[in-house]
Amino acid sequence: MFNRTSGIHHITAFARHPQENVDFYAGVLGLRLIKKTVNFDAPHVYHLYFGDEAGSPGTILTFFPWSEARQGRVGGGQVGITTFVIPPGSIGFWEQRLASRSVVTNRSIRFGETYVQFTDSEGLRMELVEREEGPTSTWEVDGITADYAIKGFGGAVLFSTKHADTIDVLERVLGLVKVGEDAGYVRFQATAELGNLIDVPLEDMHHGSGGAGTVHHIAWRTRDDDEQLEWRESVARSGYAPTEVKDRQYFKAIYFRESGGILFEIATDPPGFARDEEPEELGHKLMLPEWYEPNRAEIEAILPPLKNNAK
Ligand code: ZN
Once rounded to an integer, what is the mean pLDDT over residues 17-24? Predict the structure, then answer.
C-alpha cells in the first residue's frame, strides 16, 4: 500500500512578538486569525493559527510567538521560504501594500513564474506568486478584496542539508511527483490545488539554527486517522522514526525528521478549527484543550495581552 499526500497541511514557525505577529499576518497580509491557543507542549507560549476563512488545510500558517525566544537563522534543515498564492493581476497591489508598510520586496523568477519575496519583521522568509489554481478567498479585511486576497499556500522552498535525501523522501515516502528543473531548483507536485508545489535547491545547504524568524516544521496532509496510521507504518518502513500519534485538537499529528534535517509532520484534515468555536467566532477567544482548562486562570495571567486589530 502506498499513500500520497495531497500537499501541505500547515507550516509552523517561531516568532518573538505576539502582537506584531497578529498585526502583520492578519492586518498586513489579510489572513484570518482562526485560532488563538497555546503551545500544547509549553502552555505559557501562544500558538496562533492563520489561514483562509475556515482554516482549510493548505492555507494554515501557525506561530509560537514567545518574547524570550532566541533569534534563529534561516538555513539548511528548514523550510527556507513559504510561498503564498495570490490571484492573477494582483502582484502590483501587493507590492504597493507592502511598500506602504515599509516592507522591502524583491522580484525573483523560478520556473517562469514571478515571485515577490520579503520577510516579516523577525526575518521569516516568504513570497507571493500569482496563480489561477485554488478557490478565491472569502475573507475580506482592510481593503483586501477577493480580487487580491491570498488564497493559501502555493508551496514551499525546502532548504536541505542533504538535498538528494530530501528529494528521495518527497518522492518515495510522500509520493510527490517531479515536474521539472530550473536554475538550480527541482520542483515537485502534489495533487491539491493549494500547497502543492515544492521546490528544492540542488545544493546541500549549511545548517540554519532554530529560533524567531525560522520555520519549525512543515505538515503534510492525510485524509483521516486510519490513513495516518498507514503513514506511520510506511514512514517507519522507509527507515525514519515517526512519533506516536499526538492529538492537536484540530488535527492529529505524527512527526519525523528527514535526513536533510527538516522536521516533517503528517496531519489529518479533520476535525478542523470549528470543533470548539462557531465558524464566525474563530480566533476570538483563547481556546484551551480540556486538559489545560483547570489551569486557565494561570495561563491567561502569563500570556501577554493580544488584540486583533484586523477585524
Ligand atoms: Zn504542526
Answer: 97
Contacts of 23 (CB under 8 A, 6+ apart): 309, 310
Which residues hold their Cβ within 5 A of ligand 1, which is an ion?
12, 219, 265
Query: Cα(10) to centroid of ligand 1, in Å?
Result: 6
Say if residues 116 and 94 touch (Cβ distance below 8 Å): yes
- According to DSSP, residue 235 is labeled H
Does the pLDDT of residue 230 top 70, yes or no?
Answer: yes
Expressed in angstroms and rounded, the spacing between residue 12 Cα and the centre of ligand 1 is 6
Residue 96: count other Cβ atoms within 10 Å of its Cβ. 11
Beta carbons within 8 Å of 297's beta carbon, 6+ residues apart:
none
Q: How far is the CA of 243 from the centre of ligand 1 (A)?
A: 13
**Per-residue model confidence (pLDDT) at position 142:** 87
- The residues with which 141 forms a beta bridge, in sequence order, are 144
Asked if 126 contacts 120 with a C-beta cutoff of 8 angstroms, the reply is: yes
pLDDT at position 1 over 60: no
Number of H helices, E strands in the chain: 5, 16
Q: Give the Cβ contact number of residue 23 at 10 Å.
A: 17
pLDDT at 310: 87
Walk me through the domains of the chain, giving residue ranges and CATH numbers: 8-302 (3.10.180.10)
Ligand 1 centre distance from Cα of residue 255 (Å): 8
Let me know: does 102 contact 115? Beta carbons within 8 Å.
no
Query: What are the residues whose beta carbons fall under 8 Å from the beta carbon of 161, sequence distance 6 or more?
Result: 76, 77, 204, 205, 206, 207, 260, 261
- What letter does residue 26 receive in the DSSP assignment? I
Calculate how far, in angstroms, residue 8's C-alpha sits from the geometric centre of ligand 1.
11
44-62: pLDDT as tens digits? 999 999 999 999 999 999 9
CB of 185 closer than 8 Å to CB of 145: no
